[in-house]
Amino acid sequence: xxxxLEKHLRESAGFIDALLASAEQSDxxxxxxxxxxxxxxxxxxxxxxxxxxxxxxxxxxxxDFVESGTQLAQLTDSIIKTHFGxxxxxxxxxxxxxxxxxxxxKYLGKAGAVTELLKGMAQLSPEEKKTRxxxxxxxxxxxxxxxxxxxxxxxxxxxxxxxxxxxxxxxxPGRGRGVGGIHPVIKTWQRCEEIFxxxxxxxxxxxxxxxxxxxxxxxxxxxxxxxxxxxxTFYVDMNGTDGLPLLLRTHTSPMQVRYAKMHANDLSxxxxxxxxxxxxxxxxVDSDATHSPMFHQIEGLWIDENxxxxxxxxxxxxxxxxxxxxxxxxxxxxxxxxxxTEPSAEIDMKFDSGPLKGRWLEISGSGQVHPSVVKNFxxxxxxxxxxxxxxxLERLTMLKHGIGDLRLFFEGDLRFLKxxx
Length: 421
Ligand code: PHE
Hints:
The protein has helices spanning 2-11, 15-23, 27-38, 43-48, 56-67, 70-73, 77-93, 97-108, 113-119, 126-166, 184-198, 212-215, 254-270, 309-323, 371-376, 393-401, 414-417; strands spanning 202-203, 209-210, 235-239, 245-248, 274-283, 294-304, 329-338, 341-351, 360-369, 385-392.
């Protein structure tokens, strides 16, 4: 019989769970079940007392169960209804093992209902003991079966819950490895090196923390020049060998002096021209849509015995045409002022096609290197002459790609950067 009962409990498509689900339709009925379950009463009566009637499907389940099998029906009505039925509900209400084991104690424990029934048999006649004892034992076995089934179902539920929590969605796309790209400004830097390298320019690199002399004095910036002010220059909290505070270079022009001083001897004794570009980071106290406190410049310097503005125009025009990949552009020089060049000029360019067509765009500072600066190179200004230019790498990049805001370069937004990868 117990095998059949177990089978029935399993096959009744979650009989206990169905009971529970119906009870949980409202907190009120769940409470009612709990309260009622503590007082063993006939299952029918018990069900009839529900404030909310059971759903018909659940009611049918219970009826089918009670009626199934002649042997099961042999359990006396009262025992089925009071103890087994009540235990079934109680087990069904158990949401965890602790509750279930407590419920078990109510029926099968030392002071449990079944144990009390067995104790009560003492007063019965031997005949009555036989039949009554058999009935009570069947009820006891049936309760044990219900308990076993509920234990298994709770364990399965717990396992399913755990599996669901630990489940891995193998259909999710993998995390992948993003391929890095070269920053657009650095691409410009690299392209400049390629172009100037191809026409015989050396590439030099120098310190970003610079001495006052290289950044200003050697470049003809008088001591009270406004560029030296705290408003324009980041000073470092440390002095150079000259006792003046070190600073973050405000332009790449100090590289003219550093490089020329190192190569002055080769020029004067061997006639090797000084022909160099020096790209790198520069710093100014400045921040808006077209200025960033850190930005990039490329310095150019060509010194020999006979280098003129015509050479500057030729070199720079060639550079622009190759950089912007079009011959359809014009270059003009506009008078300007820099302390370290004389004469000085802004280089402007104009596209003959494309979105910027027809507008003169300022692209670089330039000029013939001032004789005092040539002297600071360690060269004779009567003999050596040449030009220098300094262009912004961000500006070149913005014009090339039509970028309107310089800050995009420094925000690290992949949606922006990926366009250049
Ligand atoms: N250093 C100048 C600047 O930062 C640019 C420049 C370089 C001008 C070389 C003339 C010659 O504005």
